[in-house]
Amino acid sequence: MLKQERYRLFVDYFSKHQPNAVTELHYSNPFELLVAVILSAQCTDKRINQITPALFERFPDAESLSKASVEEVFAYIRSVSYPNNKAKHLVGMAQMLMGKYNGEVPPEHAELVKLPGVGRKTANVIVSVIFDIPAIAVDTHVFRVANRIGLTTNAKTPLAVEKQLIENLPKQTLGVAHHWLILHGRYICLARRPKCEVCPLTHFCRYYQRANTTTALLRAAAAEQKKLKNAKKKKLDKATDKALKKISIDPSRQAE
Ligand code: SF4
């Protein structure tokens, strides 16, 4: 199947079935989303949603967070991964927002990546979700699922995946495609054991088709071997019968 055909089927399926896919992180303004996305690195959205209500209540904006101590923030986020670093990043990020951006989250990707704790992926999420700028953030789910389906070829890094997706997806679907891939990876195309048996994408998924072709080839080879073995056995049985028959009718041997 041609790559373009795969992209077409991918966009068709999700446009029809999940046209309004959104992030599962809870937030009510750009500042909260930025905090939640920084916290979500190497952690689950579920865990982040458990701790952010109290965190947002205590630090509702960049100003309040910029005045907090790292230790105080740590106490609110201790159950997420890398709480020490993340607490430092959050305070540093809020201080920079206050010092350089008037307490607001800047819409430019180049400015966002200057904030502590904000890398390319986080900046892509913010510009896409908050400012509706075409961008696609590549996290572990996007990386894996895009590769399995066959939307990418030999893409070894998140940046390579990002470039190939941008090159091939219709511009207006970039933002939502990020959520399609994440949600599909989170609930169906699991890292260790993809649930292909319930997946609606098997008719164009490269991973599924390759796995099935391999299985079919292995089955055919096993059947051929069995056939050969049976034929050999039949031949041997026939030869044995013939030999036994000969012995039983040989008078000289009967006398022995
Ligand atoms: S068919 Fe399997 S490998 Fe392909 S996208 Fe679906 S779950 Fe993932």
UniProtKB/TrEMBL annotation:
Recorded hits in InterPro entries, A to Z, give: DNA_glycosylase (IPR011257), Endonuclease-III-like_CS2 (IPR004036), Endonuclease3_FeS-loop_motif (IPR003651), Endouclease-III_FeS-bd_BS (IPR004035), HhH-GPD_domain (IPR003265), HhH_base_excis_C (IPR023170), HhH_motif (IPR000445), Nth (IPR005759)
List the Pfam families.
Answer: EndIII_4Fe-2S, HHH, HhH-GPD
Q: What is this protein called?
A: Endonuclease III
Cofactor(s) recorded in Swiss-Prot or TrEMBL = [4Fe-4S] cluster
Q: Which UniProt keywords apply?
A: 4Fe-4S, DNA damage, DNA repair, DNA-binding, Endonuclease, Glycosidase, Hydrolase, Iron, Iron-sulfur, Lyase, Metal-binding, Nuclease
Query: Gene3D superfamilies recorded for this chain?
Result: Helix-hairpin-Helix base-excision DNA repair enzymes (C-terminal), Hypothetical protein, domain 2
Query: Is Hydrolase there in the keyword field?
Result: yes
Q: What does this protein do?
A: DNA repair enzyme that has both DNA N-glycosylase activity and AP-lyase activity. The DNA N-glycosylase activity releases various damaged pyrimidines from DNA by cleaving the N-glycosidic bond, leaving an AP (apurinic/apyrimidinic) site. The AP-lyase activity cleaves the phosphodiester bond 3' to the AP site by a beta-elimination, leaving a 3'-terminal unsaturated sugar and a product with a terminal 5'-phosphate.
Q: HAMAP family from the entry? A: Nth
| Enzyme's top EC category | lyase
Biological processes annotated in GO = base-excision repair, AP site formation
CC cofactor note: Binds 1 [4Fe-4S] cluster.
Reaction equations catalysed: 2'-deoxyribonucleotide-(2'-deoxyribose 5'-phosphate)-2'-deoxyribonucleotide-DNA = a 3'-end 2'-deoxyribonucleotide-(2,3-dehydro-2,3-deoxyribose 5'-phosphate)-DNA + a 5'-end 5'-phospho-2'-deoxyribonucleoside-DNA + H(+)
Q: Which family does it belong to?
A: Belongs to the Nth/MutY family.
Report the coiled-coil segments: none
Sequence ranges assigned to domain HhH-GPD in this UniProt record: 39-187
Chain residues that bind [4Fe-4S] cluster: C189, C196, C199, C205
Q: Which SUPFAM superfamilies match?
A: DNA-glycosylase
Q: What is its EC number?
A: 4.2.99.18
Keyword Transferase on entry: no
GO-annotated molecular function: 4 iron, 4 sulfur cluster binding; class I DNA-(apurinic or apyrimidinic site) endonuclease activity; DNA binding; DNA N-glycosylase activity; metal ion binding
